[in-house]
Amino acid sequence: MAAPAERMRSMRNRRRTRGLRELRLVVPDARSQSVRHRVAAQVSMLSQGDESEAMRWIEAVSEFDAPSAGNDEAR
Fold first, then answer.
1. How far apart are CA 70 and CA 75, in angstroms?
2. How far is CA 47 from CA 14, 53, 54, in A?
3. Residue 52 has pLDDT above 50, yes or no
4. Which residues contact residue 24 at a Cβ distance below 8 angstroms, ignoring those fewer than 6 apart?
5. What CA–CA distance (Å, rounded) separates 12 from 10?
6. Residues 24-47: pLDDT tens digits?
7. For residue 12, how many C-alpha atoms fall within 13 Å in the half-sphere facing its CB?
8. Maximum distance among all alpha carbons in the chain?
9. Is 73 within 8 Å of 66 (Cβ atoms)?
10. Structure letter (DSSP) for residue 72
11. What are φ and ψ of residue 24, in 5° steps?
């Protein structure tokens, strides 16, 4: 059997052949108390007015809230 590094290289090559690329993301761990406290502190500083305005804009431009001309189900 091939070494782990060689198996990974082979897997990446197979994926590249299929037009895929490996992507790794590093995100804050929501299970961590320190991260949860940091998020809570940031949320507490949000302006209700600004957030409401942002939500109205998101809803206005969302393709899911209004039928589009190209959507067969909406006809």
1. 9
2. 48, 10, 11
3. yes
4. none
5. 5
6. 999 999 999 999 999 999 999 999
7. 9
8. 61
9. no
10. G
11. -115, 135
